[in-house]
Each structure stands twice: as structure tokens, then as C-alpha cells.
Amino acid sequence: MNFNIIVPIKYVPDIEKVRFDTETGRIDRSSAEGEINPFDLNALEAAVRIKEKYGGFVTVISMGPPPAEKALRDALARGADKAILLSDIKFAGADTLATSYAISCAIRKLGSYDLVICGEKTVDGDTGQVGAEIAEFLGVPHSYYVSEIRDISKKNIKVVSDFGDAYYLVELELPALISVTKDINSPRLPTFKDKMKARRAEITVWKADVLADVCDIDKFGFKGSPTTVSKVIIPKEHVKECCFIKEEEAVDKIVEVLKEIGVV
Questions:
Q1: Residue from 63, 61, 107 nearest 89 by CA
Q2: pTM metric for this prediction
Q3: What total number of domains does the chain contain?
Q4: Does 200 fall in a domain?
Q5: The domain spanning residue 32 has which CATH number?
Q6: What is the domain extent for residue 101?
Q7: Is the bond preceding 65 in cis, omega lying within 30 degrees of 0?
Q8: Residue 184 domain-assigned?
Q9: Does some domain include residue 86?
Q10: What is the pLDDT tens value at each position of the chain, 264 positions in all?
Q11: Of all helices (H) and strands (E), which one includes residue 98?
Q12: 211 C-beta neighbours (distance < 10 Å), count
């Protein structure tokens, strides 16, 4: 059937090693190596499996600085066929709205497609908003928290969405967008051969001006971002205290503690 599938991915710092700047309220991205957002690996794996079963072409798109090419090459090694990097100072400072707008512009620039598959969220932002916003900008139906792709044809796709209290079987008319959870699959590891091939692959880099014929450049980056962060507070860790009471002292000690906290 040959499906044309697009997977937006994000280049994020290793969240277990990265440091957080409490003064500026920003992540110090230079403090840790970057990688593909772990949730996006599940989206990529879902796309590659559809391609392997039905035929097709998988394009990955990322927005970020030049080092983000590392994530795109990793995606190529894992089965993607084409990689596009949106890299321009005009994209800098984007919130979720400006980010999703830029990615939707890139998708529109590519032309026809059947399916967009996103990860549930990113480990550095954790908003889970970009996928739905891309779908709204593109004007296509979308479903979130997809834990299973039940069936797909050239006309529609049937997925199982986890809404917390129940699982729903949702049918969407293509083209459409789905956002998948980590439960949908286990991402493959790239082989050494695939890594070497990806190192030699061409990464297509698009500046903001490339999208000028399909979008409003003033809606990119900081200029197109209505969201501002006024203050960031890191909650302090509270360590629970406990004490051991001998059996013969239990009643008296409990009464004493209850009096101290004003219960009795």
C-alpha cells in the first residue's frame, strides 16, 4: 500500500545527566550529551513497522541547532528513509505553539502524506501538546495516547487509545496524526552497519526562508510564541522522619506525639 509517514523528533539532553540553571529557569543543554527524545523512538518504531509490513517511506523532521543532526542520523540508522532539520536563528525561543507551527509548515512543504506519528511527550518539556497542535495546524484528525495500531488502510487507521479509565477503539480518516505511548512497542537498536550507513547519509537542512511560501515566518521562534515563563521554582525535597518505639513504650509515646502535634 506504500504509506508516506512523517515522524517529528526532538533532540534532547540526557535527562539523567543534564543540569538545571535555577537562576535563569532554563536547562543547561551543554551539561549533557544529546539524544533522540525517548518517547519519539516509539513513534519512529511504529512508523518503520508499518513501512516494513505494508511498504512506504518514513521521513523524520526535527527543529534545532546543527548538533541535532546527531538525532536525525540515529533515526536513519533505526529505519527512517529521509531526515530534515529545521535550523535557523528565526526558530529559536519557540514555545509549543511556534514549534508545532514550524513543523506543520515543513510537513506542508513536503506535500502529500498519509500519517504523522508523534511521541507522547518530550522529557525536557513534558507538555504533550505539540502533536495535537501540529494536527490542528494541518487540519487533520488526531488521536492521543495510542497504545496499539489495530489496522490501517489507504483510507483510514484504527487505533487503541488509552484514556486512563478505559481503552477506546478509534477510527481516523487519513491523512491523520497519532501520538503513541511507550506501551505501543519496544524500539529496535540500530546495527553497526546501519549506523555507518547513517553517518554517510545526507541531512536536508531547511532555513526559515525555505518555508516562506507556505507559512508566515513571523510566527516562528520567539516572535510567534505567546507563552512566557515568569518564574521557575524547584520544589525542595522533604525527607520523612521515623523513630522506633519499644513495645512497652508504644502507648505512652504515641499519646505524647499526638499531644505535640495538637491532635489531643
A1: 63
A2: 0.83
A3: 1
A4: yes
A5: 3.40.50.620
A6: 3-224
A7: no
A8: yes
A9: yes
A10: 899 999 999 998 876 666 666 565 566 556 557 889 999 999 999 999 999 999 999 999 999 999 999 999 999 999 999 999 999 999 998 999 999 999 999 999 999 999 999 999 988 877 889 999 999 999 999 999 999 999 999 999 999 999 888 999 999 999 999 999 999 999 999 999 999 999 999 999 999 999 999 999 999 999 999 987 776 666 677 777 777 777 777 788 888 888 888 877
A11: helix 96-110
A12: 23
